[in-house]
Amino acid sequence: MSANGGARVAMLVAPRTIELREEPVPLPAPGGIVVRVRAALTDGTDLKAYRRGHPQMPMPTRFGHEFSGDVAAAGEGVTAWREGDAVMCVHSAPCGRCYWCANGEEELCESVMSTKILGAYADYVAVPSHIVARNLLRKPGDVSYPAAAFLEPLACVVHSVSFLAPKRGSVVAVLGDGGFGILHALVLARAGMNAVLAGRRPERLALARELGVDAIDTAALPLRDALLERTEGRGADAVVECTGSETVWESAPELVRRGGTVSFFGGLPGSSRVWFVAARLHYDEVRLISPFHFSPGDVRHAYDLLAAHAFPVIRLLSRTYRLNDIATAFDELDGGAGLKMLIEP
Ligand SMILES: [Zn+2]
User: Fold this and answer.
1) CB atoms within 10 A of CB 190
2) Centre of ligand 1 from the C-alpha of residue 293, in Å
3) How would you label 216-244 residue by residue, b for 16+ Cβ within 10 Å and e otherwise?
4) How far is the CA of 16 from the centre of ligand 1 (A)?
5) Which residues make beta-bridge pairs with 71?
6) What confidence score (pLDDT) does residue 3 get?
7) Cα separation of 33 and 318, whole Å?
8) Of 184, 190, 215, which is closest to residue 201 (Cα–Cα)?
9) Most exposed residue of 39, 101, 231, 281, measured as fewest CB within 10 angstroms of its CB?
10) What is the 3-state secondary structure (H, E, C) of 129-147?
């Protein structure tokens, strides 16, 4: 909270321009709550929006969507939560009524994107009733606020891994050494897979290795060779693309064995077209899949992993900034420094 009792909200007003605005503290909607933010994390989507805007985030826009905090106020009709409760949540929830929700594909809910909330880089976030009802969880006392803020990115990764459904013991190459790449390697390894992380940033690969990940520097060793060596010359059982680069998307089918699966986790700009060799897909039965978002079940699974302290997620946080210094945090990320930044209002 600011000195005069208002609330600060970081607004992305133009590419590479963040303004900290003063607003009244939000009031909870019926069935909703207001969270006083204790930890918010930066993420690749936020960095992309910072650099060049985002089609779903016309500027000026509030931004940031990975956060945890305490209930500051509960709206009319809310009985399960009260002021002071430590909470963690994601920024969306499915409607529970549309075709996709009824079909068990809640990540594709027709309103899950249009009813999501943004604005974690702020003193307060108003969480509406549909999210309170489906995707708000109590933060365990022994999980820190920064760790709890990993609920959303971890839910994305849990969904991605369950969508891939790899067999135990299979060799899964993860392309990209960003936060999502490292989280994938950790979740895959915990589920019994031989995860191989491929990247080019020595400091990130070193961090991954400290966390027990088999990490390959593709600047030093061609990834395909490294994978052939680990699979008696067959190629990886699966590849998960976590860079969101067209070139990497197009290279991914060449890395799997016959009958292997390529999962495109890293999104490309909406107008992108990518090219694959048809024979590779057809004669070698290479499957292409593309996981999107997550369901409330994935959120529960991610919660269980965090509550069990399955991995030291806070090791992925490079630096801590106060909300007043958020522009510096993004300037540093833009310049290539750090992996994920922690914003503590
Ligand atoms: Zn729905």
Assistant:
1) 15
2) 13
3) bbeeeeebeebbbebbeeebbbbbbbbbb
4) 34
5) 35
6) 53
7) 30
8) 215
9) 281
10) HHHHHHHEEECCCCCCHHH
Cis peptide before 291 (omega within 30 of 0): no
Ligand 1 centroid distance, CA of 117 (Å): 16
Mean pLDDT by 10 residues, the chain (345 residues): 76 96 96 98 93 89 97 98 97 97 97 95 98 98 98 98 95 97 97 97 96 96 95 98 96 97 94 95 98 97 98 97 97 94 97
Beta bridge partners of 117: none
CATH topology of domain 156-289: Rossmann fold (3.40.50)
CATH architecture of 7-143+309-344: Alpha-Beta Complex (3.90)
User: How far does residue 138's CA lie from ligand 1's centre (Å)?
Assistant: 24
DSSP string, 220-240: TS-HHHHHHHHTTTS-EEEEE
Structure tokens at 138: 């109590």
